[in-house]
Design a protein that fits this description.
- The chain is α/β, with parallel strands linked by helices.
- The protein has seven helices and six strands.
- The chain is globular.
Length: 159
């Protein structure tokens, strides 16, 4: 799923100058082609997820189309207030892409498990939630997520 997402993201970025990818210190092997093709459209925010969400909100307020990508618990649980207040309340076009749905990162322990993420995101105003089940659905759903004129959560499995 991650590899297909990276491929379709690179294709969409060729068509849209406002797209920018923010990551939380992961995905370097997954996004090598994207980074090589669009070095100015890639921002590693490091292990500062709440700041990454605030940055994405600011970018969206200035006509950019941020895609925010990291492991689900770090993307959603640590940043819930920023997502709610900075993105959803303003109905901003920010695409949150979480990787590792369910128990995908099972060996890393409960801090990396994502079992309540769909319920959390569905509770937010203006949030669109998409959960593709295989790489083909990722390819089909990402353009819908990216073109949505409001916040979207795209949940990816790890494999």
């Amino acid at each position: 799923m991650r590899n297909r997402f990276s491929k379709i993201l690179t294709e969409v970025a060729k068509q849209d100058e406002e797209l920018i990818l923010l990551v939380g210190d992961i995905g370097f092997n997954v996004f090598d082609d994207f980074i090589e093709t669009f070095p100015k459209k890639f921002l590693n925010a490091g292990v500062a997820e709440s700041n990454m969400i605030g940055t994405a909100a600011g970018m969206a307020m200035n006509s950019m189309k941020p895609i925010v990508y990291t492991i689900i618990p770090f993307l959603l649980m640590r940043t819930f207030e920023q997502i709610r207040n900075d993105i959803c309340m303003h109905n901003l076009q920010v695409t949150l892409v979480g990787v590792g749905g369910g128990l995908s990162y099972d060996t890393l322990g409960p801090t990396h498990h994502a079992i309540e993420d769909i319920a959390i995101m569905r509770s937010l105003p203006n949030m669109q939630v998409l959960t593709p089940s295989d790489p083909d659905e990722v390819e089909w759903l990402f353009p819908l997520a990216f073109s949505h004129k409001g916040p979207t959560y795209l949940r990816l499995g790890k494999g």
